[in-house]
Amino acid sequence: MKYSFYLFAFICFTSQSFAQSNTREAPEYPWLNQKFPVDQFINFEGDSSLLFQSDTIYMLSFWYSSCPPCLAEIPALNKLKEDFKGQKIRFLAITFDSQEEWSQFLILQPFDFEHFQMDRNFINQYRLAFGYPSNLILDANGIVRYQKSGGHTDPEKAWEIYDLMKEEINKVLSER
Question: What range does the record give for the signal peptide (predicted)?
Answer without folding.
Answer: 1-19
